[in-house]
Here is the input.
Amino acid sequence: MAETQPLRVLVLGATGLTGGKVVNGLLERSEVAEVVAPVRRPTGVDHPKLTQPVVDFDDLAAHSELFDVNVIVCCLGTTIKKAGSQEQFRKVDFGYSLKAAGLGRSAGARAFILMSAVGASANSKIFYNRVKGELEDAVRELGYPYLSIYHPGLLLGQRQEHRTAEALGIKVMPLVNRALLGPLVQYRGIEAATVARAMVNEVCGLATTADPVVGRQVWTYPEICRLAGDE
Ligand code: NDP
Here is the structure.
């Protein structure tokens, strides 16, 4: 039987819709020894395996010791509306995520799981998709032995805050999803819980030391559902 190595996992965006579910999922798994969740406000979760240091995201390098982990899961992100400008959005979604990825690589993390978005491309005419694509390219350059990039469509799930456009999308998504077939399947709305379950399963799969931790892939709707165990 393959041996397992208990994992130390760092989660960015732990107070968010997806990141919160990733943290909760990881805490339940025996493959995970420790979850580190740098935050700007505590998650509200209390668990012996969880540490949640409050950090200054403008100076992540001051917290470099936190990044000495096996795996990093990045579910960090804002919206252009919340950030207040495209520049501020870029600072968070691109700047903070890339800085964290770099600190992890320098500290010896071997695997990075990045929550991006369907349509992400550095060549996209849509600003949001372009920033996501540029982030993906920049993270690829860091040379993580194992890199998975998630491309979900609209995230479904209960948020504390109200997002008008998203709320509308979520209402019509069950109908729209049924019409999205073939290559359009990737644009289906997906439960944040499903994405989180996929990430947790993927992370825990890395605990088996018999397999070398290598691989680079982009997961879209069908693969995310498969990883989540939904088929
Ligand atoms: P949420 O918006 O629910 O959570 C975002 C997380 O990022 C929170 O932990 C939040 O912390 C943190 N964050 C935001 N701004 C800052 C900041 N300035 N400094 C520090 N931390 C910050 O995320 P979702 O689960 O909705 O999305 C996760 C990722 O998936 C994002 O990158 C998003 O772009 C992407 N995505 C989203 C889709 C959607 O339909 N919403 C679709 C496809 C991809 P705090 O709680 O302190 O604000």
